[in-house]
Amino acid sequence: MVYDKEKLLQIVKKNEETEIDCLKKLVNIPTCYDKHHDMTPIITQLTDEFEKRGYQVQTFSTSGAPVIVAEMNRGMKKTLLFYNHYDVQPEEPLDEWKSPPYELSMRNDRLYGRGVHDNKGSLVANIFGVQSAFQAGYEPKCNIRFIIEGEEEAGSIHLEEFCKAHPDLLKSDGCVWENAKAIPNQRSKFKAGVKGVVYFELHVKGFFRDAHSGDAPIVVNPAWRLVWALSSLKNEKEEILIDGFYDDVLPPKKEELELFTKYPSDEIEQYKQLYKTDKFLLGRDGVEFWKELILKPTCTICGLLTGWTGPGSKTVVGKEAMAKVDFRIVPNQKVFTVKQLLRKHLDKHGFSDIDARFLTGYEPNRTQIDNPFIQMLKDVAKDFSGKEAVLFPSAQGSGPAYLFGSHTPWVFGDVFDPESNVHAPNESMRLNELRYNTAFIAAVVTELGTY
Ligand SMILES: [Zn+2]
């Protein structure tokens, strides 16, 4: 390690008042995209924060919220990239907040406010982390670039537009996706991939109006047709029955399976606590648990709507039925292929009458787990936390990181904090976490040019 951890922590502590003040300014500006908040004030604020630190700032307009790119090009060979977002989740339910959501407040060494954790706190830690590395006199051997979007919580609707127009800006030697952090005595978790998702609504129509269920022998029942179609998609062993569905799925690698055997057992315990269960689907446990959760595709009925669902016994054949279905997909599956395969499957099984409406899709993406950038983050995390970080080849969820994946290695890293209340009322971050997050980033900036 080329940095001195204590020296970095001292600088971070010295800057702390300014750092919290910077966070306060950002949190106090409401920035929920779906609520059509005016994003101009936060763009002005961020531009100001970056420019006074010597970054060149460009604001790219999209059909939605603008994307801010702040760059410190120092003529180095390597570039460190940060992806963050300045938008936040809606604040409701308001009456459950103990302090106003858009006013940063501190209680018991925790900072509270909407966006404090997701993702304004990490953005500020990244900005002050870079600054601290310079203040420590390390002259980092890399260029720094921030890409900050304003629609992440709404599904990054227009990020693709930006990424396709500016692939050069996505190129880097390592991208910190929102956060990477380590705090003493806590294991860091790094996720180096995302599954893709393909989301459909399946619609079935029967006769033009609801029918008396006594007429069931002569009327089409869309509920039955939908249930039959759904049951043709997957069996009770959780195998997806669509022809060719698994053709593009990469088999697990030896290194990945090896990694799973080394996970501490309380990683699975945390899921048991989460769902208040001591047994998972099909008894999945150990390596099998992780293999299914991280590397395999899924098919899920997310919702069903048909017929009479109110109180009492209304004997009726509904005129229509609808199911929401998602497929989580893994490398090298493609959204386009899954769309085609599902249509083919429904037609082949006699369900040409079912209208499969595609709603949204994200591609899957993974950074190779032996990428030096990830290994470096793991080493720095161990140095800061005293514990071996857990590296997940992929998250089980999906996200826009796939748009960056073919241009840069990227990783998302967090530490477990059940009180962070991300997306919920009283969102918070431990002051200690902000401090160590900042110092961790300072260390990463310093190390990047040296590995
Ligand atoms: Zn979020």
Main CATH class of the largest domain: Alpha Beta
Q: How many runs of DSSP E, i.e. beta strands? A: 19
Largest sheet: 8 strands, mixed
Which architecture of the largest domain would the CATH scheme give at its second level?
Answer: 3-Layer(aba) Sandwich
- What small ligands are held by the chains? zinc ion
Q: Quick one: CATH superfamily of the largest domain?
A: Zn peptidases
Taking Cα atoms only, what radius of gyration do you get, to the nearest Å?
Answer: 24 Å
Write a brief caption for the model:
The chain has 451 residues and is of the alpha+beta class.
Describe what you observe in this structure:
- The chain has helices at residues 5-27, 40-51, 120-135, 159-165, 167-170, 222-231, 254-261, 266-275, 286-295, 335-348, 372-385, 402-405, 431-448; strands at 56-60, 67-72, 78-85, 105-107, 110-112, 142-149, 174-177, 188-191, 193-194, 196-205, 211-212, 298-306, 316-317, 320-329, 355-362, 365-366, 390-392, 410-415, 428-430.
- By secondary structure, it is α+β, with helices and mostly antiparallel strands.
- It folds into two domains: 5-194 and 365-448, Zn peptidases (Aminopeptidase), CATH 3.40.630; 196-249 and 296-362, 2-Layer Sandwich (Alpha-Beta Plaits).
- The strands form five sheets. An eight-stranded mixed beta sheet has the order 1-2-6-3-7-18-8-17.
- Helix 1 (5-27) crosses helix 3.
- The longest helix has 23 residues, at 5-27.
- Bound molecules: zinc ion (ZN).
